[in-house]
Amino acid sequence: MDVGRRIEAVLDVAVSHAEAPGAPPLLAEAIRYAVFPGGHRIRPRLCLAVARACGDDDPAASDAAAAAIELLHCASLVHDDLPCFDDAPMRRQKPSVHAAFGVPLAVLTGDALIVAAFETLARGAARSPGRLAALVGLVARAVGSPSGIVAGQAWESEPHVDLVEYQQAKTGALFAAATVAGAAAAGAAPLPWRLLGECLGEAYQVADDLRDVACRQEEIGKPAGRDATLGRPNAAALLGMGGALERLRRLTREAVEVIPDCSGQAVMRAEIEAQTRLFLPASLREAA
Predict the structure, then answer these.
(1) DSSP letters along 154-211, please?
(2) Which residues are paired to 90 by β-bridges?
(3) Residue 274 has what pLDDT?
(4) CATH number of the domain where residue 162 is located
């Protein structure tokens, strides 16, 4: 099974648990709608790539870690699109969850996906209690406060925001979780992998800022120009297109340079180079 099918299969199992008999039908429908079809699944791919680089001796645990990361990402998108935040009517080329199911169900869908992420971890890593404990702590840190994606969302309500601190929480935290969770799931030391995730997270956020400034909704699958409309920090607006593209190139180089020594280092390098090419839509790739 290739990586893409592996990710979709484990996500389908995770969502199926939330759709078990007795679940409110509309909530069950909204949960599946929020997860499928997905985007490039960059975060779970990164998680599994690190697990493979570290030996991947417990595929059930690494699958669970990858699925948990993606479920949390999907939850963050559902909540981010809500009228009280970005008020985005589209996501992944279709109506956002609140546009399709209403605000109350969208709030509950995001909540349910967060819970499903930790349930998935518990089921998949149950045979290795030590690894499970490490995974829960690492993933929880990436979600909550003071430096997880919830904190990243909360910075948008503060009167003054540091761009780097904001982006590290809003985007970088889940990328860092993907790398450290992949290592922990494979029984390797997670800390050496954190810097890789942080570099890739910052690179992805810069790319996202470039998409917001330079692309149309049809190209990126969500409303464009929202950062300017909502007064959000944006690297392309602060640094200019040229400065943001140079920052993206630098971060991509740094990500390759900080890959820890491991048996799969060469494969990991190729994976990062392939994935970072997907950060930007085709219209911006030549410039990068």
Answers:
(1) HHTTSSS--HHHHHIIIIIHHHHHHHHHHHHHTTS-SGGGHHHHHHHHHHHHHHHHHH
(2) 95
(3) 82
(4) 1.10.600.10
